[in-house]
Write a structure and sequence with these properties.
Rossmann fold, about 35% strand
Length: about 230
C-alpha cells in the first residue's frame, strides 16, 4: 500500500510514520512524507497513492484545497484529514473524505483507518497497466472494454483510457473468469457494462458501439444470458 502524509509539522510526520512502521512492519507499506501540498501534488501526478493523510491547517495551500486538487486526479484515493478542530468535518463531504483524525493521531485510530482500507482493497480486483510514463493500477469494475490496435491495447474505463503494448489474447485469458467476453478479434467487453444488444452490435456504458463477430454470436449470447441470470439472484 502506498501512503502519503502531508503536514507542516515534522514532529507529527515522524510520529505518524513510526506508528505505521510499528503496526505493519511485516507488510508492504510505503509511506512518503510531504511538508506542503505542492510537493505532494507533483508526486501524486507521477505515482498514485492508495491513501493520503492531510493536515487541514497548513500555510499556503490548506488541506481542503489540496484534497480538491487530488480529487481532480483520482476518484479512488482515500483521503483522511488531520485536525484539532472537528468543526472542519462538514468540509470533508465536498471531497468524499474517508474520515477525520484528531491530532495527535492515536495508534488505535491509525490502525482502524488502515485496516479498513486494506479490507476494501482486498475485496477489489485490479490489473496493472504499464504505459510509457508510469505503472497504473486499474480496477476491473471500472473497465468498459479493451480494444486491440496493431500491437497496442487500449483499456477504456469510466475514468479515462490507457494505451500500452500488449497481446489481447493474454488479457482474454486473464479476464474471462472475471465477467469479460471477447466479442471480436479486436474487442473484449465487460458483461456488466453492456447496456443493450442488437444483432451484431452491442452498446456499452458511455454509449460505445462495439461489433460482435459472426463466429462469436452464439457463444456470446450464451455467456451474456448466463451472466444476467447470475446477477438476477
Amino acid at each position: 500500500m502506498r501512503i502519503a502524509i502531508c503536514d507542516d509539522e515534522k514532529r507529527f510526520i515522524n510520529d505518524f510514520s513510526a506508528i505505521v512502521d510499528k503496526l505493519y512492519k511485516s507488510l508492504d507499506m510505503i509511506v512518503d512524507e510531504f511538508s506542503d501540498g505542492a510537493s505532494l501534488l507533483r508526486s501524486f501526478a507521477a505515482r498514485r497513492y492508495d491513501i493520503v493523510f492531510l493536515d487541514i491547517e497548513m500555510p499556503g495551500m490548506d488541506g481542503i484545497a489540496l484534497a480538491k486538487k487530488l480529487r481532480e486526479q483520482s476518484e479512488d484515493v482515500y483521503i483522511v484529514f488531520l485536525t484539532g478542530h472537528i468543526e472542519y468535518a462538514i468540509k470533508g463531504y465536498e471531497v468524499n473524505a474517508l474520515r477525520y483524525l484528531t491530532k495527535p493521531a492515536s495508534e488505535e485510530s491509525v490502525r482502524e483507518v488502515l485496516d479498513h482500507v486494506i479490507k476494501k482493497q482486498n475485496s477489489e480486483k485490479y490489473i496493472w497497466v504499464r504505459s510509457r510514463s508510469a505503472d497504473q493500477k486499474v480496477r476491473l469494475s471500472d473497465i468498459i472494454f479493451i480494444e486491440a490496435q496493431d500491437q497496442n491495447l487500449i483499456i477504456c474505463t469510466q475514468n479515462g483510457s490507457y494505451e500500452f503494448r500488449a497481446n489481447i489474447g493474454e488479457y482474454e485469458q486473464m479476464l474471462t473468469p472475471e465477467g469479460f467476453f471477447r466479442i471480436h478479434r479486436s474487442y473484449i467487453v465487460s458483461l456488466s457494462k453492456i447496456v443493450s444488444v442488437s444483432g451484431k452490435e452491442l452498446t456499452a456504458a458511455g454509449g460505445y458501439k462495439l461489433p460482435i463477430a459472426r463466429a462469436k454470436e452464439k457463444e456470446f449470447k450464451d455467456a451474456f444470458m448466463s451472466f444476467i441470470s447470475k446477477e438476477a439472484f
